[in-house]
Amino acid sequence: MDKDADPNARPKGKRKRKVSYLTLNKIETVDYKEVNILRKFINDRGKMLPARQSGNTAAQQRMISTAIRRAREMALLPFVVTDMTNDRPAMRRSRRDDQAPMDSGNTPVESTAKEATPTESA
Fold first, then answer.
1. How far apart are CA 22 and CA 55, in angstroms?
2. What does the pLDDT read at residue 110?
3. Going by C-beta distance under 8 Å and a sequence separation of 6 or more, which residues neighbour residue 43?
4. Distance between first and last Cα of the chain
5. What residue ranges of the chain have pLDDT lower than 70?
6. Cα 36 from Cα 49, distance rounded (Å)
């Protein structure tokens, strides 16, 4: 064993390449009308999965992405998934939105808005 090797470090070896769904099922071509196959290459938010995640070859990834784009144009697949479940927390506002407005001297500015009083008409 190497003297300088960290005992807690992961071994650096060749990783087993992920095999594509298309290769496993011996699918040569994918058409935009085959929505059930295309859904396997889209995540829960409607985005295309990258080739490193799906295991597609470059040619397969080009074929899939073209088919997904065509299916979206034909309204067979959504461009964006709008129904968000409660799995994800709501988007947080940035800190800048929470801060009081500052003047040039970096001191909070008092609100100068006067309360509107209704005028009485006779």
1. 9
2. 65
3. 49
4. 98
5. 1-6, 84-122
6. 15
Contacts of 71 (CB under 8 A, 6+ apart): 32, 33, 35, 38, 77
Instruction: Identify which of 89, 80, 74 has the alpha carbon closest to the alpha carbon of residue 47.
Output: 80
At 111 the pLDDT is: 58
Provide the token pair at 120. Answer: 């009485």
Residue with token string 């009081």:
100
Following DSSP, what letter does each residue of the chain receive, concatenated?
A: --TT--TTSPP--PPPPPPPHHHHTT-----TT-HHHHGGGB-TTSPBPPHHHH---HHHHHHHHHHHHHHHHTTSS-SS-----TTSPPPPPPHHHHSPPB-TTS-BPPP-PPPP-PPP--
Instruction: Return d(Cα 45, Cα 47) in angstroms, integer.
Output: 6
